[in-house]
Amino acid sequence: MGKRVALVLAGCGVFDGSEIHEASAALVHLSRSGAEVKIFAPNIEQRDVVNHLKGSPAEEKRNVLVESARLARGNIQDLAELNASEFDAVIFPGGFGVAKNLCSWAVDGKNCTVNEHVNSTLQAFHSAKKPIGLCCISPVLAAKVFPGCEVTVGQDKNVDGRFPDAETASAIAELGCKHICKNVNESHVDKANKIVTTCAFMCKAPLHEIFDGIGTMVQEVLKLA
Fold first, then answer.
1. Which is it for strands 195-198 and 188-190: parallel, antiparallel or unpaired?
2. pLDDT tens sequence across 42-66
3. Catalytic site residues?
4. Of the chain's two ends, which shows fewer C-beta atoms within 10 Å, N or C?
5. DSSP codes, the chain
6. pLDDT of amino acid 1
7. Cβ atoms of residues 117 and 77 within 8 Å
8. What is the pTM for the complete model shown?
9. What is the CATH class of 4-224?
């Protein structure tokens, strides 16, 4: 029987929701491994809406759950309904929606607050010693909720211009967590906390390398489940 995995989304679109390629990559790797996946998102208003063609703010309001349903092909539930006892693991793709909608990192950095249902979900899986997978910017959720944990968002320096958001590693360290430098095709496993992270689009890399890196994260999560 395949592992039961919850996937938590933050909207639809890199600049104001979940990064579509990351969500799709996680789903493909989970499917290939025979996992049974259910998708969730918080039923809240997005912090903002971005016109992805122009890269500028749009004067409209959107709901995170409704937008995430686009990625889930309509098969999605309110995050408030997620029961950790029904799953073996949870995975969070990245995208700016994580830093805007699932927490306030985009505005407040290391002083951010985490959405109550996101926080309770993370705490429930952690308390049950069930693995948590995070990619791109979503490792900051673990850094905020679990002081002392180990995560990666890639490199702590902008190596060859490939890691423009390398300062995120410093902010993670300021939260009392350990940042582990990894390449885009790798993931880091914090065995003590059962937290698996990979940098994905925090690195400027070809899509297939990001896809492969997410694959390592998924496989490590399933090993721990």
1. antiparallel
2. 999 999 999 999 999 999 999 999 9
3. 136
4. N
5. -PPEEEEE---SSTTTS--HHHHHHHHHHHHHTT-EEEEEE--SB-S--EETTTTEE-S---BHHHHHHHHTTT--EEGGG--GGG-SEEEE--SHHIIIIIBSHHHHGGG--B-HHHHHHHHHHHHTT--EEEETTTHHHHHHHSTT-EE--S-SS-GGGS-TTTHHHHHHHHTT-EE----TT--EEETTTTEEEE-GGGS---HHHHHHHHHHHHHHHHHH-
6. 75
7. no
8. 0.97
9. alpha beta
Q: What's the CA gap between 108 and 162, in Å, rounded?
A: 24
Q: How far apart are CA 38 and CA 23, in angstroms?
A: 13
C-alpha 160/C-alpha 29 separation (Å) is 29
